[in-house]
Amino acid sequence: SVGKEAERDASAVSRAGGLIRRFPWRAASDGGYGGTPRTALLRSAPRQQPDGKGKGLEYYLSQFLYLASLVLLLIFLSILVVKMVGSGWLDRGEESFNLLPVDCDKSTDNFCKTKQKDMTMAVLHELYNYLSVQAGNFECGNPENLKSKCIWVSEAKDHVMNVTGSSPQKFEAALHWILNSNKDLGIWLKGRDLSGPVSSVEEVFCLESAHPQMGLGCRFRRAVVTAITNLFLFFWSLITLWGILIFLRYRWRKMEEEEQAMYEMVKKIIVVVQDHYKEWERNLERYPYVGIFHVRDSLIPPQSRKKMKRVWERAVDFLASNESRIQTESHRVAGEDMLVWRWTQPSYLSDSEH
Fold first, then answer.
1. In this structure, what CATH number is given to the domain that contains residue 320?
2. What is one term from the GO cellular component aspect held by the record (predicted)?
3. Among candidates 187, 35, 31, which has minimal Cα distance to 120?
4. Which residue of 8, 50, 75, 135 pairs with 54 in a disulfide if CB–CB is 3.0 to 4.6 A?
5. 226 occurs within a structural domain
6. pLDDT tens sequence across 287-304
7. The pTM is what?
8. Whether residue 267 sits in one domain with residue 194
C-alpha cells in the first residue's frame, strides 16, 4: 500500500509538471509542483546570434572609425609640432639677426653676406607689399586720392625704412637688386619719362607694382565689369557681323535682280533693232539703223530712266561685246553725230531661225 501511494504521488507530480511546461504563467498558483517561472525561462532561453555577415560589417566599421580617429590625432599633433618648431626657428633667426655685429656691412664673410641678402629680401618683400597695396587701392576706388599707381621713390623709401628699420643704403641695394635681376620681381622702376627704360638707380623717379593687391569685393566688381564689357563687345561684334551679312545678301540679291533686268533689256533691244530692220526692208523706215538713245526712249519711260540707267549701260556694253548680229556705228542724223545700231543678219535667215 505504501508503494501504491508513492506511485500515485509520482504520477500526479508528472502530470502537474506537464501542465506547468505547457502553461508556464500558472506556475506560481499550482502549489510549486517543480514548475519554472516565466522570467527564469526567458533568461535561460538561448538568444539568437546575428549572422556572420552582419557581425563582420559591424566589426570592420568599428575598426575603420578607430583607425580614422588615430590618423586625425596624429595629423593634429604633427601640425602642432610644425607650428611650434617653425615659430621657434623664426625666433632663433630673429635672435641671430639681432646678434649681428655692427660692422657686418663692411665684412665679406659668408655669414655676413647671407645676412645682407636676407635684409635685402626683407626690404624687397616690404616694398612689394606696399606697392601692391597702393596699386590695389588706386584700382579699387582710390580712397587715398593717389594721382597714379607709380609711387614716388622718396615716399616708398620712407615707408620701407619705418617698417623694416633699415638704412637708405639697404633700400638702394634693393633697387640695385631689382635693376640687375633678370626675373620679374613684380616691381617696375620708372624714370621721369614713364615710358622710357631706367639704366641706373639715380634715374628712378617712381616705383609701380606689376601685381596690384585687391580685395575680394573689388576683384568681384572688376570681374563683373570685365564680363559685362566683354559681353557687350561680343554682342556688338555679333550685331555688326549680322549687319554685314544682311547687307551683303541684300547687295547680292540686287545684283542678281540687276543682271536679270539687264538680260531682259538686251532681249528688248534685240527685238526693237530687228523689227526696225525688217520695216526698213519693207520700205517703212528711211534708214536701216536706229539711234541708241531712240531705242532707250522707246523702251524706258522718262520717270524710270534715272533708276534704270545702270541696267541700260550694262545692256549696251553687253551688246557691244557679246552680240554679233547688232553692229554699233556712228552716223550723222539731223546734223548731229550719234551712235546707232544696225541689224547685220538678213531677215530671211532670222525668220528661218525663228
1. 1.10.10.1180
2. nuclear inner membrane
3. 187
4. 50
5. no
6. 888 999 999 999 999 999
7. 0.44
8. no
> For every residue of 185-210, which 3-state class applies, written as one string?
CCEEEECCCCCCCCCCHHHCCEEEEC
Residue 325 sits in which domain range?
Answer: 252-343
133 and 208 inside one domain:
yes
Contacts with 319 (C-beta within 8 Å, 6 or more apart), sequence order: 266, 269, 270, 326, 328, 341
Helices (H), the chain: 2-22, 38-44, 52-98, 110-139, 153-164, 168-180, 216-281, 292-299, 309-322, 347-353
Which one-letter DSSP state was computed for residue 166? -
Residue 57 included in any domain: no
Mind listing the pLDDT tens digit for each residue in 148-197?
778 888 888 888 888 887 788 888 888 878 877 777 778 888 887 777 77
Q: Are residues 210 and 304 in the same domain?
A: no
State how many domains the chain has: 2
Cell 617698417 belongs to which residue?
163
| Spatial separation of the C-alpha atoms in residues 25 and 164, rounded to whole Å | 92
Question: Quick check: is 8 in a domain?
Answer: no
Q: What is the DSSP letter of 345?
A: S
Cell numbers placing 319: 551688246
Q: Is residue 133 part of a domain?
A: yes
